[in-house]
Amino acid sequence: MASRVLFVCTGNTCRSPLAEALAQERGLAAESAGVAAQRGDGAAPYAARALRQARGLDLDDHAPRNVAALDLSAFDRIVAMDPSVAQRLRAEHDVDPDALVTWTIPDPYGGALADYRYSLEQIDAALDRLRSD
Asked: How far is CA 60 from CA 8, 13, 68, 72, 73, in A?
């Protein structure tokens, strides 16, 4: 498993903060960002609720940040939450293709709490596979 991981989604309010929290729970050095993230109020309320209910973890201190503000070479693995995010990372940022991993996690943004729970479960399973790489 890589020693430093960056999880990237679109707005850095749902999937990537969930992945960051679950990875940190496993003792991994993890951060998150979004390819279109803007300053905002924090994590999506349903993302925070799903994580708190499933794991007792919170996203209270999460602040969305844009991947453009980061030095991507500082990360051993960069995990794109879906193929469209991976495509944007390759097209718009200097990403080492050997470091880039693409998952297919559905974006729950704007959906019901059940959608966030489903994405959380998918992220949890994908993290188990990532750790075995």
From this structure: 19, 12, 23, 25, 28
